[in-house]
């Protein structure tokens, strides 16, 4: 009976014996030859050495003898009172951190908005009204500046003529021919008188310029107000200004800035509307010059009449271009 049981269970016995040999005996499991510690193959049979850390041996052990695996040691239970205190502390800490973070975010939003983010929608709406007409006082100031610009062009032409005439002073005829000399002196005197008149007129127009002209003063005020808002915001972030003071001043500055930017945007719209009309007038005059030329070519008008009309229209076009140039300074 014992032999029968032994024979029946021989494969299992041999397996467990092999495991024991692998774990405790430095022998080859195939031929039984002795192995050294650093041998990876059997010297006698040439088969690989099976060691305890072999993945195949571990896998076979798990499959055939799961009852040999040890259960992981259980951690000692802590006092339930301490655990509950720790658990209750964590949500409180999280809620406090969340509250602080929320306050910081709120403060940063209150003091961190850029001026362009606050004002851009309002200014866009105000400037989208279409054909805004300039106030008479603003239009008058722009026309004065246009006249000054035209006077500068005339003064330059007069200066060029004076330069050309003064070259005649070096001519030999100036010393020899009395009539020629008187002629040159008369021309120089007349041109210098024209230059003096232009300078006097320019001085008179310059005295009519308004120092508080909106298209000049508003951009300066807007820039200064933006700098004040940025400075206030920076001081608030560094806790140099109290919250209630910051809110009051910030609201005050923003209101002033909105008002100035809205007024400036409307003036720009009116200026562009006026500029568009002037460009249309220029195109119409250029067309009239072409029509006059065609009338002259078809013998409807004389050459003198054509040149007269052409010079008149070209002068008007030069004035319009001077006005457009002045407007461009404020756009």
Give the structure's gist in a few sentences.
The protein is mainly alpha-helical and 331 residues long. The chain has 11 helices and no strands. The longest helix is centred in the C-terminal third of the chain and has 55 residues.
Describe the structure.
The protein is 75% helix and 0% strand. It has 11 helices and no strands. Residues 20-24, 63-70 and 84-90 have low confidence and may be disordered. The protein folds into 2 domains: 2-68, no CATH class; 122-328, no CATH class. By secondary structure, it is mainly alpha-helical. It has helices spanning 2-8, 10-24, 55-64, 80-112, 115-127, 136-166, 172-176, 178-207, 214-237, 243-297, 303-328.
Highlighted features:
11 helices; 0% strand; 331 residues; elongated; 2 domains; mainly alpha
H and E order: HHHHHHHHHHH
Query: Rg from C-alpha positions?
Result: 50 Å
Overall number of strands: 0
- Our count of helices gives 11
Oligomeric status: single chain
Count of distinct structural domains: 2
- CA distance, first residue to last residue: 116 Å
The backbone outline, from C-alpha atoms, is elongated
| Overall mean confidence score, pLDDT | 78
Largest sheet: none
Report the sheet-strand fraction.
Answer: under 5%
**Helicity level:** over 70%
- Detail the poorly predicted runs: 20-24, 63-70, 84-90
Protein structure class: mainly alpha
List the helices and strands and how they pair.
Elements: H1 2-8, H2 10-24, H3 55-64, H4 80-112, H5 115-127, H6 136-166, H7 172-176, H8 178-207, H9 214-237, H10 243-297, H11 303-328
Helix pairs in contact: 4-9, 5-10, 6-8, 6-11, 9-10, 10-11
């Amino acid at each position: 009976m014992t032999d029968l049981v032994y024979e029946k269970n021989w494969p299992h016995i041999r397996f467990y014996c092999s495991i024991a040999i692998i774990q405790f005996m430095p022998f080859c499991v195939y031929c039984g030859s002795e192995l050294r510690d650093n041998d990876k193959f059997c010297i006698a049979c040439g088969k690989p050495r099976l060691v305890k850390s072999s993945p195949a041996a571990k896998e076979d052990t798990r499959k055939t003898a799961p009852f040999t695996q040890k259960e992981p040691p259980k951690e000692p239970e802590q006092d339930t009172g301490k655990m509950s205190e720790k658990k209750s502390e964590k949500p409180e800490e999280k809620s406090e951190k969340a509250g602080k973070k929320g306050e910081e975010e709120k403060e940063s939003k209150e003091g961190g908005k850029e001026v362009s983010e606050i004002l851009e929608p309002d200014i866009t709406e105000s400037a989208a009204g279409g054909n805004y007409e300039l106030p008479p006082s603003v239009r008058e100031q722009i026309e004065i500046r246009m006249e000054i610009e035209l006077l500068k062009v005339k003064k330059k032409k007069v200066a060029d003529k004076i330069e050309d005439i003064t070259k005649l002073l070096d001519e030999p005829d100036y010393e020899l021919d009395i009539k020629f000399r008187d002629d040159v002196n008369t021309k120089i005197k007349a041109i210098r008188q024209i230059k003096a008149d232009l300078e006097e007129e320019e001085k008179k127009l310059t005295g009519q310029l308004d120092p508080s002209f909106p298209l000049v003063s508003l951009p300066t005020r807007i820039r200064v107000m933006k700098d004040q808002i940025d400075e206030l915001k920076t001081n608030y972030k560094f806790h140099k200004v109290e919250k209630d003071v910051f809110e009051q001043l910030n609201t005050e500055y923003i209101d002033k800035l909105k008002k100035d930017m809205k007024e400036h945007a409307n003036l720009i719209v009116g200026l562009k509307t006026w500029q568009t009309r002037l460009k249309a007038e220029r195109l119409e005059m250029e067309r009239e010059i072409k029509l006059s030329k065609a009338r002259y070519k078809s013998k409807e008008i004389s050459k003198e009449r054509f040149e007269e009309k052409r010079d008149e229209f070209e002068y008007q076009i030069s004035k319009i271009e001077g006005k457009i140039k002045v407007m461009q300074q404020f756009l």
